[in-house]
Amino acid sequence: MQLSNFPTARLTPSDDWEDFVYPFRDGRQSLPQSWLDIFGPLRNGCVDDLVVVGQLGQSLDGRIATASGHSKYINCPAGIEHLHRLRALVDIVVVGVGTAIADNPQLTVRQVAGPQPVRAVIDPRGRLEAHARLFSDDGVRRLLITAEGTRCNPPPGVEVIALPAQKGNIEPSLIVGALARAGMRRILVEGGADTISRFMAARCLDRLHVTVAPVMLGAGGPGIALPPRERADQAPRMPVRVHTVGADVLFDCDLSDQRVELGNAKKSM
């Protein structure tokens, strides 16, 4: 594992984040080194022309919420800032309907400079109410990903993507393919844990950012949940880079060797 320091100061006029985010998105070659160590791997895909990254914040004992469901805020302010920087770098932020109902997130860039990403919710049964904050008409493109045949009533202007579903679930590869056809090349799967786990199990993530806070919750919602292995030595290992993010520790996991081809291929798997 590679350990590196991570810029954690809040955005100020002297902060070079703004000098990074716009050149990063514009495809310019020269980028400030201070942010390149952590965000450089998200610039170009290793498998194809897509970059799909999952993000999860959790406690040291692997919980994303207490037993009562409370989760604000497990991670420190710098960890929240990191999430907003991720949003500023991607084309679209995707959440599952459980997270959208429980947290009612805005999915906007508020803590740092940068453009607002497209917002999407995976809602196979059309459960999310039209007044959900991620559906807010603020000039940003909004997508509802649902199962074929589901009756949905999203607000005007929300695009509906209907995909085949099995047992109420839509395969992550179908979701990524549909988003790619909609013009999304850099995709952030932000939550919840079940949605990220399904994308990871389906080998649809290039990278996984797990921000671990130095707290113990004792019980509550678990983080990543994958099909079990009988032996520890059978579990696949991955390259990991570790960064300090304020009081938290960020594990940047490289999953590209496991990722299935989803866009235009760059290398054979």
Please characterize this protein's 3D structure.
- The chain is α/β, with parallel strands linked by helices and 269 residues long.
- Helix content is 21%, strand content 22%.
- It contains six helices and ten strands; from the N terminus they run βααβαβαβββαβαβββ.
- A ten-stranded mixed β-sheet has the order 1-9-10-8-2-7-3-4-5-6, with helices on both faces.
- A hairpin with a 2-residue loop joins strand 9 (240-245) and strand 10.
- The protein is globular.
- The two termini are 24 Å apart.
- The relative contact order is 0.23.
Q: Please write the string of helix (H) and strand (E) elements.
A: EHHEHEHEEEHEHEEE
Count of individual beta strands: 10
Q: Main β-sheet: number of strands, strand sense, barrel status?
A: 10 strands, mixed
Q: Which term fits the overall shape? A: globular
Helix residue percentage: 10-25%
Radius of gyration: 18 Å
Keywords, please?
single chain; alpha/beta; 22% strand; 269 residues; ten-stranded mixed sheet; 6 helices; globular; 10 strands
